[in-house]
Amino acid sequence: xxxxxxxxxxxxxxxxxxxxxxxxxxxxxxxxxxxxxxxxxxxxxxxxxxxxxxxxxxxxxxxxxxxxxxxxxxxxxxxxxxxxxxxxxxxxxxxxxxxxxxxxxxxxxxxxxxxxxxx
Length: 119
Description:
Largest sheet: 3 strands, antiparallel
CATH topology of the largest domain: Arc Repressor Mutant, subunit A
Strand order of the largest sheet: 1-3-2
Number of strands: 3
CATH class of the largest domain: Mainly Alpha
CATH architecture of the largest domain: Orthogonal Bundle
Number of domains: 2
Helix content: 55-70%
Distance between the termini: 21 Å
């Protein structure tokens, strides 16, 4: 699954994930407050996100089809694939270049590696 979102779409999607299940009328209020959007803009962007398969709008109730965690995991995998030819070690080397990892960060990364090796 490949879903591309612009910056504004990402902010709106995060708003939905944070508040779901949420009515479309509540989204109009939230987006008006946080993004200064009009009702028509909210409905246009919501329809685009539903068409992309992220959310569904059933009788005015908006829920996700893909969780925030799933979406960003897919985006991260695509970034590593596109930028580092799928090499996670190359990504980690580039990510950590020029910065010192804390003991807590190293421990967390090691736990992730250990869990991935078990799965």
